[in-house]
Amino acid sequence: MPVTWSIERSGLIRLTFSGDWVSDTESREAARAVQASGCWNEQARILLDLSGIVASTIPSTGILRARTERWLTLGPTPRRMAIVAAPGAVFGISRMIEGFTGTLSDRVQTFDDAAEALVWLSHD
Predict the structure, then answer these.
(1) The pLDDT value given to residue 1
(2) pLDDT digits (tens, 9 = 90+) for 48-100
(3) pLDDT digits over 15-28, tens only?
(4) 22 to each of 10, 38, 63, 76, how far by Cα in Å?
(5) Where are the domains of the chain?
(6) Do the Cβ atoms of 27 and 53 come closer than 8 Å?
(7) Which of 1, 18, 108, 121 could lock 45 by a disulfide, CB 3.0 to 4.6 Å apart?
C-alpha cells in the first residue's frame, strides 16, 4: 500500500508514502482516514515521510498545490508538519510543497533526515 499512517504514543501523526507518486484517490483516502481519527487538530505534529517515493512520474504543480491545500485544510491548522524526503527530485518537490503553504510556511519544513525532522517537530 503506497500510503500508511499511524498515531504514535506521543501524538505524532506519521504518514508514510512509498512506491511511485501516490494517486489522487489514494491521497484523498488517506486524508479522510486521518480526519476521521479525530487526531488532526491545532496541536497536531505531522510527519510526512516521502523518503520511500520513487519519482518515475511527477505530478503537475497544480496537482501538488491542490494536494497540499487538501492536507492543510483537513481540520484546524496543525502546529507543525515536517516533510522527510531523500535528496534529489523528491526533496526538491517537497520544497515546492513547503512553498505552497504560504502564510503557514513557518509551520512546515522539509528535511532529508527523519531524526532532524523529529527534533524540529518537538519544538514549540
Answers:
(1) 45
(2) 898 888 766 677 778 877 777 777 777 777 778 898 988 887 888 888 878 87
(3) 888 887 777 788 77
(4) 27, 23, 11, 24
(5) 3-122
(6) no
(7) 121
- State which amino acid sits at residue 78: P
Residue 39 — pLDDT band, cuts 50, 70, 90? confident
Q: Which residues, other chains included, contact 68 with Cβ-Cβ below 8 Å and sequence gap of 6+?
A: 97, 100, 101
What type of residue is 21? W
Q: How far are the Cα atoms of 62, 70, 72, 77, 121 from residue 80, in angstroms, in the given order?
A: 23, 16, 11, 9, 6
Instruction: Report whether 58 contacts 90 (CB < 8 A).
Output: no
Which one of 3.30.750.24, 1.10.10.10, 3.20.20.60, 1.20.120.920 gives the CATH number of domain 3-122? 3.30.750.24
The one-letter amino acid code at 55 reads: A
